[in-house]
Design a protein that fits this description.
The complex is a heterodimer of chains A (278) and B (327). Chain A is 71% helix and 0% strand. By secondary structure, chain A is mainly α. Chain A has one domain. Chain A is elongated, with a radius of gyration of 21 Å. Chain B starts with 15 loop residues before the first strand and ends in a 6-residue tail after the last helix. In chain B, the strands form 3 sheets. Chain B has a 6-stranded mixed beta sheet, with helices on both faces. Chain B is α/β, with parallel strands linked by helices and 327 residues long. Chain B has 11 helices and 15 strands. In chain B, 34% of the residues lie in helices and 27% in strands. Chain B has 2 domains: 174 residues, P-loop containing nucleotide triphosphate hydrolases (Rossmann fold); 70 residues, Alpha-Beta Plaits, CATH 3.30.70.100. The radius of gyration of chain B is 23 Å and the shape is elongated. Classes of the chains: A mainly alpha (278), B alpha/beta (327). At the A-B interface, helix 1 and helix 4 of A face strand 6, helix 2 and helix 3 of B.
Chain lengths: 278, 327
C-alpha cells in the first residue's frame, strides 16, 4: 500500500515525526498564548455580565426591597443564583471562545485554511477547538464563582460536593465548547446577531439560571419545554455541586449532559470538516 | 502528458514528488472542475499549472493539499497517498494560498514560531528557525508587528516563509502574484528563484503566462479541468512550428482574410481570429509585413496596425483552446 511507504528523500532532522500529538499540543499552545495576550479583554468580557447580574438581583433588588420572594427569599435566591451564574458563564464562554473566532476564521479571514494544513487529521483540529474552549470555560467559571459568592447582600449558603463539582464542571465545559463548535460552524458573520438574539438569549432566560427546575412544576408545560435546553442541566448540576438547594437528580443530569456533548461534538466536528474540505 | 493510463504503482519512485492518477473532482451540482488529471512533478523542478480562471488549477492544488476531496482518482505527495494518510502527507506539504491566511491573533514572529511547533519542532529550534527565516525574507524589523500591519507584499513573503519553514518536499503556490504590485511580484519571483536554486520543488498555479514562462521548468496548460499540453515552456512555444507571430488589426471580413493569409504567406502555419485581430503564425519573418499588406489590399481589407513578436504562451494557449488566457 502506497500510503505506508517511507519517503526516502532526506527530511530535515529537526522535524520530528511524532506528528499528530505534537501538532495537537502546539495548536493548544497557540490558543493559550492568544488567550494570555488577550487577558485584558477576556477578564472584563467574562466578569461584567455575571457581576451585573449578581449585583442587581442579589444586592440592588434586596436593598430596594424588590427581591424575589421578599426579604426572606433573598437568601434562598442568592444561593439559587450562584449555580446559575457559574453555569451561564461557562455556556457564554463556550460560545464566545469557540464559536465567534470560528465564524471569523471561516468567514472573511480564511485563517482556518492554514490551521487545517497542520499535520493532523482535520477532525483533530476541531477536537482541539473543543479542548481549548473547555479550558477557557473552566477559567471563566473560576473567575465568576467568587463574585457570585461574595457580592450578594445576603449570605450564600455553599455546600460543596467536590467529586460532583469537579466532574460536572469538566462536563459542563466540554458540553459548552462543543455547542460553541457546532454554532461556530453553522453560523456566518452575517447571521451571528441571530446566534445571540435567537439562541443565546432564550437559552439563558429559560435555562433555570434564576429559578430551579423543580420550582417550574407550577407551569408544567414550561417545565417540559426547558428540558431541551442544555443550560438547565448545567445549572441544576452546579446547584447539586455547590449548594444545599433543591436540584434535578444527578442520575438525570450526567447522562443528559454527556448526550448533549456527544451530539453537539459530533455534529460540530462533521460540520467543521464539511466547511474546510470541499 | 505523463503516465500511461492503467499503470498502478505500489511504490512511487522518490524522484516524483507529486503523482496523480486520473484525479477527478465533480462538485455538487455536477460541475466537473478537474477531469481525470494524471501528472507527475519531478523533484527539484518548478512546475506550473497554467490556465484561465476556472480552469481547475486551484481545485487540482486543493486535491493535492488535502483541502478538496477528489471524487475519484488518487494523489500522491512524496509517495504518500494524500487522502489515505492526510496527517503524514501534510507534513510534506507547504502551501501559500491565494488569500492571506496569516494568524491575525499573532505577531509576525509568532506566526512562524507556532508554525514550527505545529510541525513538530522543539521550542528552541522553532525560535531559531523563525529568527532565521525573518532574516532571510527581510522581515526581521517587523518581527513584533501584528500581521495586519503588513503590506500585501510583506504578508506574501511571510506566507512563503511560513510554508517553507518545515522543509516541505513540495511548495504549493496558488496564484502567488495575483493582486501584488509589480515590484512585489518581482521580489517574489526572486525568492522563488532562490528556493528553486536550493532544490525546493515548487508547484504553482497561475494565469499569468509571463510568470509561467519565466519561472517554470515544465508547464501543464489546463482548461476545463483537462491537461491540454505538458512540456517545457520553450518546447510548448516551439510546438507552434512558428518563430514569429504577426498580429494584424484590419477592417473587413477577418475570417476570410485569415484563410487567405494562411494560404498565401510563405511559411505561415496557422491563423486565428481573436479580439477583432488576426494572429498569423509564421516560420521566418523576412518580408512578411509587406506580404501581409499586399494580401490584405488584394482582398479589399484596410490594415490599421501590424505587430511582430515571438510566440508566447498566450499564443500557445490560444492555439490549444481558441480562447484568450487573459482575465
Amino acid at each position: 500500500m502506497t500510503a505506508t511507504t517511507t519517503p526516502s528523500y532526506p527530511t530535515m532532522p529537526q522535524v520530528q515525526r511524532s506528528g499528530s500529538v505534537a501538532a495537537f499540543r502546539a495548536l493548544l499552545l497557540r490558543d493559550v498564548t492568544v488567550l494570555r495576550k488577550n487577558l485584558a479583554e477576556f477578564i472584563p468580557r467574562t466578569l461584567l455580565q455575571p457581576l451585573l447580574l449578581v449585583f442587581v438581583f442579589t444586592y440592588v433588588l434586596p436593598k430596594i426591597q424588590l427581591a424575589p420572594g421578599g426579604e426572606a427569599g433573598a437568601e434562598t435566591f442568592s444561593t439559587l443564583l450562584i449555580a446559575g451564574v457559574v453555569g451561564t458563564a461557562i455556556l457564554f464562554q463556550g460560545i464566545q471562545s469557540v464559536a465567534l473566532p470560528l465564524v471569523q476564521e471561516f468567514g472573511f479571514t480564511r485563517e482556518i485554511e492554514d490551521r487545517v494544513l497542520a499535520p493532523l487529521r482535520v477532525e483533530l483540529v476541531a477536537v482541539e477547538k473543543i479542548v481549548s474552549g473547555a479550558l477557557q470555560c473552566l477559567l471563566s467559571a473560576a473567575l465568576v464563582f467568587p463574585i457570585a459568592a461574595v457580592v450578594p447582600v445576603t449570605p450564600v449558603h455553599l455546600r460543596v460536593d467536590w467529586p460532583v463539582l469537579i466532574t460536572l464542571a469538566l462536563l459542563a465545559c466540554v458540553a459548552s465548547a462543543s455547542l460553541g463548535l457546532f454554532f461556530g460552524t453553522v453560523f456566518e458573520p452575517r447571521t451571528v446577531p441571530m446566534l445571540f438574539g435567537v439562541i443565546v438569549v432564550p437559552i439563558t432566560f429559560l435555562g433555570c439560571v434564576y429559578y430551579s427546575w423543580k420550582s417550574l412544576a407550577v407551569i408544567p408545560w414550561l417545565q417540559v419545554v426547558v428540558l431541551a435546553n442544555p443550560l438547565v442541566y448545567i445549572c441544576e448540576g452546579f446547584r447539586a455541586a455547590l449548594t444545599p438547594a433543591e436540584h434535578m437528580p444527578l442520575w438525570v443530569i450526567y447522562p443528559v449532559l454527556v448526550g448533549f456533548t456527544g451530539v453537539f461534538a459530533s455534529l460540530g466536528i462533521r460540520s467543521f470538516k464539511r466547511r474546510v474540505i470541499a | 502528458m505523463s503516465e500511461a493510463p492503467g499503470t498502478r504503482h505500489t511504490v512511487r519512485p522518490v524522484e516524483d514528488v507529486i503523482h496523480t492518477e486520473h484525479l477527478t473532482k465533480v462538485y455538487p451540482g455536477g460541475v466537473r472542475a478537474v477531469d481525470a488529471l494524471s501528472l507527475t512533478v519531478h523533484r527539484g523542478e518548478i512546475f506550473g499549472l497554467l490556465g484561465p480562471n476556472g480552469a481547475g488549477k486551484t481545485t487540482t492544488a486543493g486535491m493535492l493539499t488535502n483541502r478538496v476531496e477528489p471524487t475519484s482518482g488518487r494523489a500522491f505527495v512524496g509517495g504518500v497517498d494524500v487522502w489515505a494518510n492526510p496527517a503524514r502527507a501534510k507534513q510534506l506539504i507547504g502551501v501559500v494560498p491565494q488569500t492571506n491566511t496569516l494568524d491575525r491573533a499573532l505577531t509576525v514572529w509568532e506566526n512562524l514560531y507556532f508554525h514550527g511547533r505545529f510541525f513538530g519542532m522543539s521550542n528552541r529550534v522553532s525560535r531559531l528557525e523563525a529568527d532565521r527565516l525573518l532574516e532571510q525574507f527581510h522581515l526581521t524589523e517587523r518581527a513584533k508587528a501584528p500581521v495586519l500591519a503588513l503590506s500585501g507584499g510583506m504578508a506574501q513573503r511571510l506566507m512563503v516563509a511560513r510554508a517553507v519553514m518545515h522543509r516541505p518536499s513540495i511548495l504549493f503556490l496558488d496564484e502567488p502574484t495575483a493582486g501584488l504590485d509589480p515590484q512585489s511580484r518581482l521580489a517574489l519571483w526572486d525568492i522563488l528563484g532562490e528556493l528553486h536554486t536550493d532544490g525546493q520543488t515548487i508547484l504553482l498555479t497561475t494565469h499569468y503566462m509571463e510568470e509561467a514562462d519565466q519561472l517554470c521548468d515544465r508547464l501543464a496548460v489546463i482548461d476545463e479541468g483537462r491537461v491540454l499540453a505538458l512540456d517545457k515552456p520553450a518546447h510548448l512555444k516551439a510546438s507552434l512550428g512558428a518563430d514569429t507571430v504577426v498580429t494584424i488589426n484590419a477592417d473587413g471580413d477577418l475570417a476570410a482574410l485569415r484563410d487567405l493569409l494562411v494560404d498565401r504567406i510563405d511559411g505561415s502555419t496557422y491563423g486565428e481570429v481573436a479580439d477583432e485581430e488576426i494572429q498569423l503564425w509564421v516560420k521566418g519573418s523576412n518580408g512578411v509585413l509587406p506580404a501581409v499588406v499586399n494580401v490584405a489590399d488584394a482582398a479589399g481589407c484596410t490594415v490599421h496596425d501590424l505587430k511582430l513578436h515571438e510566440p508566447t504562451l498566450e499564443t500557445v494557449f490560444l492555439k490549444l483552446t481558441g480562447k484568450e488566457l487573459r482575465e
